């Protein structure tokens, strides 16, 4: 479950993930100002020192770029559909251990998932 909420003018993301490694929580709080903000994870193989930068592409598209030791390791692009009912999240990159990953998911109708967009999915 990915939850987004606003903390002042910053976006807070909390991702609760259950997989073969067990339960993990990934999180960050960041502004759309191009600056680095800490990214934290409780995953067993999590690497400390990752940061994120947020960028608003247009009214319905945002991008998060993840860095490790100053090197870009991934991007997540999120797009809200024109009807406001679907959030598509596309992830590309490598993890800090240099394993490549790519994926795309439609998050469906969830207003809490897109509170950082100017319009609601409700």
Descriptive notes:
With 122 residues, the protein is mainly β. The protein contains no helices and 9 strands. The protein has strands at 2-7, 10-19, 22-30, 37-41, 50-58, 61-68, 71-80, 87-94, 100-106. Strands 1-2-3-4-5-6-7-8-9 form a 9-stranded antiparallel β-sheet, with no helix packed on it. Strand 8 (87-94) and strand 9 form a beta hairpin. The protein is globular and about 40 Å long. The two termini are 18 Å apart.
What key attributes describe this structure?
nine-stranded antiparallel β-sheet; disordered C terminus
Strand-helix topology:
Elements: E1 2-7, E2 10-19, E3 22-30, E4 37-41, E5 50-58, E6 61-68, E7 71-80, E8 87-94, E9 100-106
Antiparallel strand pairs: 1-2, 2-3, 3-4, 4-5, 5-6, 6-7, 7-8, 8-9
The percent of residues in helical segments reads under 10%
**Proportion of residues in β-strands:** over 45%
How confident overall, as mean pLDDT?
Answer: 81
Count every beta strand, where a strand is a DSSP E run of 2 or more residues: 9
Query: Numbering strands along the chain, what is their spatial order in the largest sheet?
Result: 1-2-3-4-5-6-7-8-9
Shape label: globular
SSE order: EEEEEEEEE
C-alpha Rg (nearest Å): 14 Å
Q: Poorly predicted ranges (pLDDT <50, ≥5 residues)?
A: 99-105, 107-122
Cα distance, first to last residue? 18 Å
Largest sheet: 9 strands, antiparallel
Total of helices: 0
Content-based structural category: mainly beta
